[in-house]
Amino acid sequence: MSQKxxxxxxxxxxxxxxxxxxxxxxxxxxxxxxxxxxxxSHLRKRVFQPIQARIYSRLNRTVDRLGYFSAAFLxxxxxxxxxxxxxxxxxxxxxxxxxxLVRFYFAARSPTPTRFFGAQETIRELNSQLAEGxxxxxxERESLGYTxxxxxxxxxxxxxxxxxxxxxxxxxxxxxxxxCHCWRGHRSDHENVAATAWVLLALARMQAKPSRxxxxxxxxxxxxxxxxxxxxxxxxxxxxxxxDPRNASTYATxxxxxxxxxxxxxxxxxxxxxxxxAGVIAKGRNWLLSNTIPGEPGxxxxxxxxxxxxxxxxxxxxxLHALHRTPGPPPLANxxxxxxxxxxxxxxxxxxxxxGQPVQITQNxxxxxxxxxxxxxxxxxxxMDAYPQxxxxxxxxxxxxxxxxxxxxxxxxxxxxxxxWATAEFLMALRYxxxxxxx
Length: 439
Prior knowledge:
The protein has a two-stranded antiparallel ribbon with strand order 1-3. Strands 2-4 form a two-stranded antiparallel sheet. It has a two-stranded antiparallel ribbon with strand order 5-8. The radius of gyration is 37 Å and the shape is elongated. A hairpin with a 2-residue loop joins strand 6 (358-362) and strand 7. The chain has one domain: Glycosyltransferase. Helix 6 (148-157) runs parallel beside helix 8, helix 6 (148-157) runs parallel beside helix 17 (420-434) and helix 8 runs parallel beside helix 10 (250-265). It is mainly alpha-helical and 439 residues long. It is built from 17 helices and eight strands.
């Protein structure tokens, strides 16, 4: 034994304090080690580690029994659930949107949109606003902006609500028609084909038969190619004074065929004229189908041949609806084009296109079309019509857009304030979305 390793019996090993026996040293080391660990951490180890071991052992046995593909699927599921949980913890609004998107895709499997009741409060408010103006006791229609055109829109929007005295309103319309057997929008305005079409549409919806001369005004104003112009000032018979394709109005043409079809469908046209009216409608419909934006079958200009023609969701939705409500082959290509061009978000309720197109009435007389075409309501109407021709993703997008409507209540209220014609169009669209037959 070397001197280096030699140690007298009873001498404590190195590191043992003086006065400390060999048998007590390990207990001191354990105690020192225990003092370094927090009591709560130590308690967790004592309580949770055995539980974790049992859980993990069972999971391991389950994984061992699974085949490769089942195990891979389980791994992906656990990973996805973990990611979703972490994302929800950090950004719950993202997960809410993702869940909503899944719900839209699930609902979009049906080619028919379900009735949407998310705008009930807005519908009630708009209905209440219009009901007062439509009352028979309202003797200040003109000063309040309730022209014959506006009254016609109100009558269409309020159908079935028992707030319009239809007999009183029909009599008022007849009084406003005057010697031209047409309507002007404003008394000081030119004879207006679009306003006349709206009034005839309202009369048809109220089951009030217009005079033969009033129907004839609309029929005689169709041009040879099938279109109608917005204004008309007859110098002498025949009615058509200017055959200029730049005057062709998609708005006036759409509402003319809508009004005539309603009159025909409700048997408010004489039997002798039924065939002629049907031919006029078909001719107007064909003109609309032939005048889409090149390469964009779901979009139209307000004046396809005019220098200042505008492309808008408003006028395009109106045209698409007219094609759906009149007899003929379904406009499948136009529907598909419409759905392919759905916006990523709803238009602002105040988003409006004003035509401004100068319309030649006679050889020396021009008038400017000042029609307001709101994007918001006609996006709803056009999308409801075209919905079945959309892909699954496009239908899900349409449902997502509809889901945004309740959040726009204040913006809608602001957009229609003091504009009864706009109020009527918004109410029509929201009721149509709900499933009401108002258009």
